[in-house]
Amino acid sequence: MKISAARVIVTSPGRNFVTLKLQTDEGLYGIGDATLNGRELAVVAYLNDHVLPCLIGRDPARIEDIWQFLYRGAYWRRGPVTMRAIAAVDVALWDIKAKLAGMPLYQLLGGRSRERVLVYGHANGEDLDATVDAVGRYIDMGYRAVRAQSGVPGVTLAYGVGRGTLNYEPADAALPTETAWNTSRYLDFVPRLFDRLRARFGNEVELLHDVHHRLTPMEAARLGRSLEPHRLFWLEDATPAENQEAFRLIRAHTTTPLAVGEVFNSIWDCKDLIQGQLIDYIRTTVVGAGGITHLRRIADLAALYQVRTGCHGATDLSPVTMGAALHFDTWVPNFGIQEYMRHTSETDAVFPHDYRFERGYLFAGDSPGHGVDIDESLAARFPYKPASLPIARLEDGTMWNW
Ligand code: EZ4
Ligand code: CO
Question: Within 10 Å of residue 346's Cβ, how many Cβ atoms?
Fold first, then answer.
């Protein structure tokens, strides 16, 4: 069998997605996601100009060798654009291999380690009352784990606050929206939010919170300590992690579990965090870190140190990534939780899939492959629309981390 054609499909059914379709000379095809929020066309160019011409005529069974070819063979290693392009190829190849075997992908990875995949949803509101109500609505929908984000009094456009729908999408304008940040107000507010949530909902529901890189290590340590009574499932991205060592300081001061890594793209970004036992959950996902082939190396390293997985699953990762992630989650022994933001109904229609949500869990389907397809004629009805992620500045104008 040979790879006979490769095509990149860009579609925007509510938001932009980049999808790779690899075809074989025997009629089988595989699908991979290559979406990089706000930088979609950079990955399209990387695939079209540098990756796809090298794939034609290759044996699609050689997943590992093609991975190594694209990683080592580029000379310029890593980075979000390269690693997403590699992920798209890798996932499409696993899809082909599993379809050829007539098995759901999790069977090829080593089989089922669990019956269902615990997920968390995103509840958010413009203020404290609205956020408490939003968490209640997620619990009513059956969620057992909920991420709570709230507008902060005195902060214009805090991270994670939607505009009245279930589908929060931060890439909201062609050019970056400017938001203003105030750390003191945030640090005063967040413990009050979780006081209210625990008082209202008790300890049964798992609660999570995403700082989205806004704090320094010592501020993060203070927040983690102040949230200890609220027993969070995790505190996410408390400080930027380019310097992995920064988490040592946070860790020394708090027992609140820490999660990080949705922006990481290789095992090298999390090696010290894992080996130093500085985190509890690693957030790298299939599309972010070079596909199933590389993510499983990260998970295996993490398992040695009792670090569990918590794959990124925001709506800017397409249903193809969600499908592949659910097969990964169904297999991976050190599974923690899976993020699950619902896609719009237009997105779900463009990407027919066999995974399903029930009572707080997602279930990978049993059709051969990763179980997600693309309806190309429907996709063509939603042309690409430029969209950027926002930026954040401190109130004096200093650029900050969004
Ligand atoms: O802001 O994926 O935990 N989830 C997140 C996401 C990110 C988006 C950026 O594209 O932090 O909502
Ligand atoms: Co996050």
Answer: 16
